[in-house]
Amino acid sequence: MSYIYMDESGDLGFNDYELNSKFFIITFLIANNEKEISNVMKNLYKWMEGKKVRRKKSAFFHANQEWKASVKRALDLASRRDIRVVSLALQKDILSWKDKENIHSLYNKAVWYLLEQCEKRNYLTYKDKHYFIASRKETKRQLNENFISYLESSHSDLLDIDIIIDNPSQVKWLELVDPISFAIYQKYEYWDLELYSVIKNKIILELQNFN
User: Fold this and answer.
1) Cα 199 from Cα 90, distance rounded (Å)
2) Which of 20, 14, 210, 9 is nearest to 101 (CA)?
3) CA angle, 31 then 61 then 185, to 5°
């Protein structure tokens, strides 16, 4: 059995060069044993309390809203666990006009592409049951349903996978994949490797763009 937790960093906006990000990052955190690692965020919060690190006012942990020391601690805790990380960085200025005009379709295709690459490289085996858990990225229910339908119809019929959309405050590992994705984003968007270097040892696949 394996669990694939997904999050993204950056944005898919194209209207304002100054405000929109240059890259959009999709990140998967893959874990084979949920119980072994389910207390990571609990340990992080305990560490923050002990260090008297002030929490930002948010329902769950967002790397871009927290102190860097907390983000680095989260990454350090993750780097010690039995996990794997894969990511896809989309360089937005080279995308086609068709992709730019239909960002929901682009998002679905990009997630499916990364899932397909995991399958081709045998990171996800046919003999196992897989749970693909993504953050609730849209407020409109129909868009979430379209996302699930697209992935279910695209992946191999041989791969036993359930696709779930949930809230990070309910699924603690969704809180952890956020800082991991954020660290990868810092590398591409700003050439800043400080956070990336903490989790680099767990990244087994790092792709840029797709056809």
Assistant:
1) 20
2) 14
3) 70
Q: Which residues sit opposite 30 in a β-bridge?
A: 4, 84
E strands, the chain, where? 2-10, 23-31, 83-91, 129-135, 160-166, 203-208
What residue type is 79 in one-letter code?
Answer: S
How far apart are alpha carbons 176 and 161 in whole angstroms? Answer: 21
In one-letter notation, the amino acid at residue 110 is A
Strands (E), 92-152: 129-135
Lookup: tokens for 196: 């990336």
pTM of the full predicted structure?
0.89
**Which residues pair with residue 25 across a beta bridge?**
9, 89
Q: What is the pLDDT along the chain (211 residues), one digit of tens a residue?
A: 888 999 999 988 877 666 789 999 999 999 987 766 667 888 888 898 887 777 665 667 889 889 999 999 999 999 999 999 999 999 998 888 777 788 888 888 898 899 889 988 988 877 788 888 887 665 456 567 788 788 877 766 657 888 887 766 667 778 889 999 999 999 999 999 999 999 999 999 999 998 6
**3-state class (DSSP) for residue 167:** coil
